[in-house]
Design brief:
The structure is a homodimer. Chain A is mainly alpha-helical and about 160 residues long. Chain A has helices at about 10-40, 40-55, 65-70, 75-90, 110-130, 135-155, and strands at about 65, 90-95, 105-110. Chain A binds a DNA duplex (30 and 30 nucleotides) through helix 4. Chains A, B: Keywords: DNA-binding, Transcription, Transcription regulation.
Chain lengths: ~160, ~160
DNA sequence: TGCAGAAATTTTAAGTTTGAAATTTTAGGC
DNA sequence: GCCTAAAATTTCAAACTTAAAATTTCTGCA
């Protein structure tokens, strides 16, 4: 069971490949379940989740397209298409900014909120299921480690 | 700094969102650097990595399309397109299976191997850089945890 | 042998994703 | 008040991705 000593660099690479494998596997399973149970896609779910969270935080005017693309870490052009299809389905509505005509606010409709809450409940259960091999103590520890990582990345000075 | 006690289910969801954020951020950075420095894309790099690894393990006939799609956890139709473009660029060649005409073997050309080794060296450095906030001991620990996770997922009985 | 079903792959349609270019609007300096 | 730069968004072309259908080939069995 002993393992050959690897350089820190090679170990980080090994970790990266494992992380990628884990997230791809979980994502594939979540996508499949969203599709089968709700006819939804992962990107749409992600967008709706961001809008729902924003709505909880400040139930006023939703998010701008730019806030949305930053929150999801995807390109701005990408968000345009996904929102377009969500609007077609009646889950999202656009609202112009009265004071800045460049900006468009986007928010969930009531139908969108209801649909999201439905999916989110199931989604939480699925994630819990798929990550169930990780004991709660491990989960807490991992969150700590990742918090530290994020702090280090976002505070270069 | 104290945090409200969350249910195991909510904690796993929190971990999942953090993991997603980490991997998306690292992937975005890797994609950008591959593009700028090598004019390559992440999917192409992944495919070449799988083929290179296969070539090291058994330097005979490469991988079949099915082996490739399973190794990368992507759909079979997906691999077809990526391989097509890699063939056009002279990095990959197809070879028919003599005994089974349904099967196509795929392997890196010499140019493909050289190009990959170049990128792989840089890629390892980038990953090391992007994950550098994680100390070697943490990296080892995380690998352990993920190994256990994988074992639990793949051994249901 | 003949044939039903499985297996490997490609094709197709729809959606996602990116990076860059184009468009529209705003802000700030002069 | 103009004019250039910045900001928000959309458009565009190319690539990636999936699930499902179609194609080709093989396998096993009656």
């Amino acid at each position: 069971m002993s393992r050959i000593e690897l350089s820190p660099s090679k170990q980080r690479l090994r970790l990266w490949l494992k992380l990628l494998r884990l997230t791809r596997g979980v994502e594939a399973e979540l996508r499949e379940r969203l599709r089968v149970n709700y006819g939804a896609t992962l990107p749409r779910f992600d967008v709706m989740a961001a809008l729902f969270r924003a709505d909880e935080a400040r139930a006023d005017h939703g998010l701008t397209m730019t806030e949305l693309s930053r929150a999801l870490m995807v390109s701005n052009g990408n968000v345009t298409g996904i929102i377009e299809r969500l609007v077609e389905d009646g889950f999202v509505q656009r609202r112009p900014d009265e004071t800045d005509r460049r900006t468009t606010f986007v928010q969930l409709t009531e139908a969108g909120k209801a649909a999201f809450q439905d999916m989110a409940k199931a989604h939480e259960g699925w994630v819990n299921d798929l990550l169930s091999p990780l004991a709660p103590a491990e989960v807490d520890h991992l969150i700590e480690v990742l918090n530290a990582h994020r702090a280090a990345r976002t505070t270069p000075e």
